[in-house]
Amino acid sequence: MTPDWKKLEALALAEIETTLTALPALLLERAQKLPVTFERQPNDALQSDGIEPDTLGLFVGPEFAEEEAVPMPPQIILFLENLWDFAEEDEEVFCDEVHTTLLHELGHYLGLDEEELTERGLE
Questions:
Q1: Residue range 73-122, pLDDT digits in tens
Q2: Strand partners, 75
Q3: CA distance 123 to 111
Q4: Which among 117, 51, 46, 56 has a CA at the least distance from the CA of 84?
Q5: CA Rg value for the chain
Q6: Among 16, 74, 83, 118, which one has the highest count of C-beta atoms within 10 angstroms of its own C-beta?
């Protein structure tokens, strides 16, 4: 059964707003400039680039420190249907995963690698 897209968007938007407003002021300023877009799942082009079909989120573009040197703007993509499936269709778990995935991808924007994110509980 296909999840209600508008419901997933509304839940994700509310969680993103809650997550961002809890950030320290300096980080909040940077994070608010970083677009967050929603997709159902990684498309064929992303999958052909090696992105797994069940990926929850993705940071694309230059890291904060390199932003001025690269013409492509950075962004975070959240794959809402994958997050919903991962949460086993539980709204509370879905919101928790949106929160964690957003912070994980924000960490990549700030230059953290997978090991550093795992150390911070953002795997």
A1: 889 999 999 999 999 999 999 999 999 999 999 999 888 888 998 898 87
A2: 60
A3: 15
A4: 56
A5: 14
A6: 83
